Amino acid sequence: MSRTWTIARRELASFFDSLIAYILLVVFLGVSGIFTWMLGSDVFLRGQADLQAFFGIAYWALYLFVPALTMRTLAEERRSGTLDLLLSRSVSDWQVVLGKFWASLLLIAIALACTLPYYLTVAWLGDLDHGAAWSGYLALFLLGAAYVSIGVYASSITDNQIVAFLVALTINTCLHLLLPFIAGNFTGVAGSVLEFLGTPQHFQSMGRGVVDSRDLLYFLSVVVLGLTAAEINLAKRGLKGS
């Protein structure tokens, strides 16, 4: 576990050293702030004290930003040859994968924490449903974790950051847009299964303040599947012994 956190701290520090963290935070806060308070805010246009406008734009922001954040996690290590060196120092594939995962997820958590003034402002302006607000934040965190695991997997299959970005974005698009669209063309069990496999149903449910065990299980399953696939990919390529 100590090696995992060492890798995570190093990766998180590299985000800030390379300005990636600052760019992500500025863009995320800028976009979410503009759409929350200036373009379509529920608070000012409908007179309702909630954070639905913020959750809606943050949902789309994570869909686009997380692949850009994670594309370098393993791809850059492979390109520079530092991954081989790292894996030769009695560090397991799992420790590398988890370290990269936690570093990216911590940066997302920092970004979400920076939006807490939105929560405080809306709570001051009106009668905010605090349970729904915190449920929405939990949904964003879990969605971010799911997309980070997908991004780490995508970064494990190539040494090209652009390819890693496109692979992660493609998988995200399937979960974010394609599966829900296809589900709309089916009825019965098939439609329900396809809808369950997409992210919107689970995110929207939690965004309304409903924390269902099925939604938690969905996001955790995506995380486990993505990280397991990344670990298997490292082991399959024989990186540890190269």
Structure description:
- The chain is an all-alpha fold.
- It has one domain.
- The chain has 13 helices and no strands.
- Helix 2 packs antiparallel against helix 4 and helix 7 packs across helix 13.
- The chain is globular, with a radius of gyration of 19 Å.
- The two termini are 24 Å apart.
- The mean pLDDT is 87.
Number of strands: 0
- The span between the termini is 24 Å
> Mean pLDDT, rounded to whole units?
87
Q: Number of folding domains?
A: 1
Strand percentage, roughly? Answer: under 5%
Q: How many helices does DSSP assign?
A: 13
Q: What form results from the Cα inertia axes? A: globular
Structural class by sheet pairing and helices:
mainly alpha
Instruction: Characterize the biggest β-sheet.
Output: none
- Helical content class: over 70%
Q: Provide the succession of SSEs.
A: HHHHHHHHHHHHH
Radius of gyration: 19 Å
Regions with little confidence, pLDDT below 50 for 5+ residues: none
Topology (SSEs and partners):
Elements lengths: L1 H16 L2 H18 L4 H4 L6 H19 L4 H6 L1 H6 L5 H21 L2 H10 L4 H27 L4 H23 L4 H10 L1 H9 L5 H24 L6
Short summary of the structure?
The protein is mostly helical and 242 residues long. The protein contains 13 helices and no strands.
Identify the notable features of this structure and list them briefly:
242 residues, mainly alpha, globular
